[in-house]
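Table 4 source record.
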Amino acid sequence: MPKVEIYDTTLRDGTQAENFSLQLEDKLRIAQRLDELGVHYIEGGWPGSNPKDVLFFKEIKQYHLKNSQVAAFGSTHHPKHRPENDPNLKALLDAKTEVITIFGKTWDLHVRDALKISLERNLEIIYDSLAYLRPHVKRLFYDAEHFFDGFKDNKEYALATLKKAIEAGADCIVLCDTNGGTLPFELAEIITQTKKEIPNIVFGIHAHNDAECAVANSLMAVHLGATQVQGTLNGVGERCGNANLCSILPALKLKMGIDCISDEQLTRLTYVSRYVTELLNLPHPSYMPYVGRSAFAHKGGVHVSAVQRNPRTYEHISPEKVGNVRRILVSDLSGKSTILSKAKEWGIDLDSTDPKVGKILQELKELENQGLQFDIAEESFKLRMYEAEGKLKRDNYLRLLTYRVQDYNTLDGRPVAEAEVWVEVKGAERHAISLGQGPVNALDKALRKALEEFYPYLKEMTLVDYRVRVLPGTSGTEAKIRVLIESKDKECVWRTVGVSHDILEASLNALMDSIIYKLFRDEFKKEEC
């Protein structure tokens, strides 16, 4: 198989995604993670478009990247300028990168309607821009924007633009599915015809995901001879996103046998994927292939039993190869095999003949029937497993005697919540009152205030997510409420759940589970994160 180079454009094309914005420090940090991952090229941005990208190209020179080269991105010169007088091309050269990528118009529709110039003038612009840049860089790439749509409308002209780019000295012609609407069988036919017309073409692929085909199209292009794949981490990008490198990398390496990065670098994939979302305080997509939290999660009892005997029965690769982990979920679909698997994972001494297994399983099904959902909040179920085994007694940590929450409006109309709690801790009673931004925050603060005298390490625990869902079954305000709380400390992230007809009681149940889990884990160091 030919060598395939990975070209990441998260820092440029990825930032065009809705709700995805990177500050300069963010871009520098992600660039370092991409270098560790082993991508060949990191597209740092468009230096002619904004001051932040100009600063990035200046600052990145202070970092000694081991595996990646930084590329500057821009367009062909303006129709009214000569290359040597074009501000865009000047900014690209001022970035002083060894790699430059520029895009040009391939679709005659864009030439006529967007640029409003003749088809011949566009060919001149492509040639002149690339020829001007060629002596100044080691690697010069040309992105043939809208190539596949252009080929469908005017095959001869689309191919003529590629020939001009090759003639001007481009090292690689990147075929772009800019609107993201090309299907894999169409892409294969177009690439095949292109290779017949231009036999020695060195080409890459840049696919968007508007038809949910970006990864498939990228892999198909490699199968047909592409030697460069462009994409973004987690598939972020304008509209529906770009080709997802977190799916492309393992597919190339593990399924197509293409050694684009090392085995060790591939094991960092899940970490790097999640690093980006954590950096931006965004939720990581659970269902993402390869790197998602649910990618190797097994819920049904039959699946769990089979996976324990041979993981290949329900897993297409070993999760460790991409730095992910296998997860056995607890739910009302679980059987004894799930309970035994989780007991082993959590260091609980159970075997298949132990009557506790059946009791735990029955309790699990009853609680989920009430609306608790443990596959999204495993830590709440862990506590119940430890309780069933006799290793955990909640009252040894704290006992909530009573609580009260009130809402007020201040004189200036701002709502304020006040929570009051009475707890018993290690034989002593404590009373605490606290104000908060809403009743749950006030309750959380009051509990901590009462407990931190005994458990000072609770100060390192923070609540990072709080979600409320009205459960089906009863309409209107009589419905049950499920509350999911996500907490973290300097080592771990954990999720707990509570259900009640009363939203405060559901919140308190989830909050108490979260606190007990923290105290139990810290005392016995039970959990690895």
